[in-house]
Design a protein that fits this description.
Alpha/beta knot; 4-stranded mixed beta sheet; 6-stranded parallel beta sheet; alpha/beta; 60s Ribosomal Protein L30, Chain: A; 2 domains; 9 helices
Length: 245
Amino acid sequence: MEKTTQVYGIRAIIEAINTNEPLDKVFVQKGLKGDLFKELENLARKKGISISYVPVEKLNRLTRNNHQGVVASISPINFHNFEELVEKVIANKEAPLFLLLDQLSDVRNFGAIIRTAECTGVDGIIIQKKGAAPVTADTIKTSAGAAFKVPIAKVNHIKDAVHYLQASGIKIIAATEKTNKTVYDVTFTEGCAIVMGSEDVGISPSIVKAADYTAKLPLLGEIESLNVSVACGVFLYEVVRQRQL
């Protein structure tokens, strides 16, 4: 599929949710009321689908059809079940490599990261159901099609994924500037998962605290940070370097 499709109208979106269409987000007109809308709202929340309340002008820009105050975007990819993905990878690979993205919001950064992940042998990318960048046509294009090749799973909370991976024998490395250790001080030859944070605030403090190791990139210039997709690439290629020694 080349582009993200849409569903519009309350009943149509309810049906899409009930048939397990991979909805990325539901856009709802501010102030919308009624029993049918409440049913949709409750169902979306139960399924962990992100809801964004927007002005009607936003919905009019999204579609020219009769949207009835609600428009939903359907992901062009099918997401994997997180636990099943982890168990499958662990059963078939001695040193799995996972990538956790904590609240990454830019679709082009997401696409660039997916592309690098495919090139470096990442076994699965884990994102959060709410607040994460959706997989859009721009994501697919920026990933050069890698979004169809790297398994992507959604979880309710990244912290839950961290604990599950740790219980499965996977060590967690958080990429953060708030540490004295650099990426070159960490061993990546065992099964591991790298956590990258959002473009503006980085990794959540609770996830940094839960991680087994923290690491940063040495910055020699005056600018204090790198683009997250570039930083992710450096981390992933350090994994490749160590595993090829």
